[in-house]
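To whoever is on call:

I kicked off a structure prediction for a single chain this morning and the downstream step that reads the tokens threw a length-mismatch warning. I double-checked the sequence; it's 241 residues and nothing unusual in it as far as I can see. Pasting both halves so you can look.
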Amino acid sequence: MQSVHTVSAYDGELNYLAKRIAAMGGHAERMVEQAIAALINADAGLAQKVIEDDQVLDDAQREIDDRSIVVIARRQPMATDLREIIGTIRISADLERVGDLAKNVAKRVVAVTQGQHPTSLFRGIDALAGLALTQLKEVLDIYASRAVDRIAFLRDRDDQIDAMYTSLFRELLTYMMEDPRNITPCTHLLFCAKNIERIGDHATNIAETIYHIATGEQMPVDRPKGDKTDRVGAPRDTAAI
């Protein structure tokens, strides 16, 4: 009976960590959605809520770290269980960073929305956020289902986020070159866009961690990542040549 009780308690500890990751994921999704809504709708109140909600993810990560250390010390897990616990620590760190990135977008809402900007800029931000959120939601579904056959497609799709971010970077740069009054708000939008692109990267990191938990193997290193903004220069005035 003691052995059965011990196994049951151990399973309960692992299940608790999994539930906390699911709760963190849901909270991170809401923060991203609300940060983008605050940016597009110039909603300073909603932006402030996102900033304050970040503390929830900070507290959850610390709790997961502490509980994971206790489980490792008490149970001395091996193989799959050890990967599960270490993976939980890594995923909680990625989700905490997603919350930080959403908070960073929210903190720029007032600065961005003080002036008038072309609607296309906000459409671009909204489309980029839509891709990043889809990536985050799908990877959390994979965490729950352990459907690792979907991970390769999800990881490869991160290249789409990078491409859209590069396109948005180029568009914002053009607006800054056309009118110096656009420099300040467009710079803030550039930071927002970069934060959103990084959310996609963290979702991809989570996918790779899940793959390692489920299979015990690392995914191939040829992951398509990295935007191409380093290759984007100021538009040339061909009429002057």
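Update from on-call: the warning came from a stale cache, not from the record. Cleared it. Sanity check on the structure: Residues 237-241 have pLDDT under 50 and may be disordered.
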